[in-house]
Amino acid sequence: MSDLPLIQADHAVPSPAATTPTGGRRRRLRLLSRTDRVVITLMVLVPLLLVTGFVWLPAAATVLLSGTNWDGIGPLNEIEFVGARNYDDVVTIYPPFVPAVQNNLLWLAALFVVATPFGMFLAVLLDKELRGSRFYQTALYLPVVLSLALIGFVWQLLYSRDQGLINAAFNSNVDWYGDSNVNIWAVLVASGWRHVGYIMLLYLAGLKGVDPSLREAAAVDGASETRTFFRVVFPVLRPINIIVLVVTVIESLRAFDLVWVVNKGRNGLELISALVTQNVVGEASRIGFGSALATIMLVVSLVFITIYLATVMRENRE
Fold it and tell me: CA–CA distance from 197 to each of 54, 146, 151, 273 (Å)?
């Protein structure tokens, strides 16, 4: 070995991968071509511009307009800033606000306490691969693809006082949509019918990702199926639980289509979203006041969205 000449680094023999068939040095291959960079830039830039233009800028404008008394008609240079007066008026001298908050809380409670557990229960049953589970899964998820406005019309066939199926079956004469004492419960049933399918699909996707060895280990230890689910499976579904919580809160806040179809959010169906619409695009045309109501909804939504994002980021770091 000592008699062999040492090869200097600057005279090293180039590897075949670094030379062309003619002996010239091959150009370094680029990881991304110009076309790829253009495509990736557009894929990032276009959604960013759309989200900024249709979500963040309107949200920022809503917050700014909530401190004005603009009626949407006069020129922008005549807008008068009134500070927090709109928020004070919402709480103190706007009678529909308290019933709207109560109805939104009732909506949240109904979805969270009844519809969400029922959707989770259906997901557990379908996860067992019962006969016809594909058919049931499709049938239960079908209402999710329908808008709440269309669901309102569908349930009108059931709730109609004169020709509805429910009154005909029970020989009653209840005005399900017109009576302020019962219409909130009627629309909650219709909304829950749609919400159940959505929650079912979320939990079903989560259950499919649970490691089967966890259930097998619990079964070896003698745990029942119920105990296994609540002590082993349910904690594993923590990310799904956070998503379901956020989705349920947002659904209760943005519930609008159904009540607007029924009676435009009046006579027992007051919701904050309906009040925003009544003030912004209704006869009142109080853009500043309606923006204050919308900002309240935005702040409440951001609280739960922030909790969700913080949870996801913390899990990713772990």
Answer: 28, 11, 13, 23
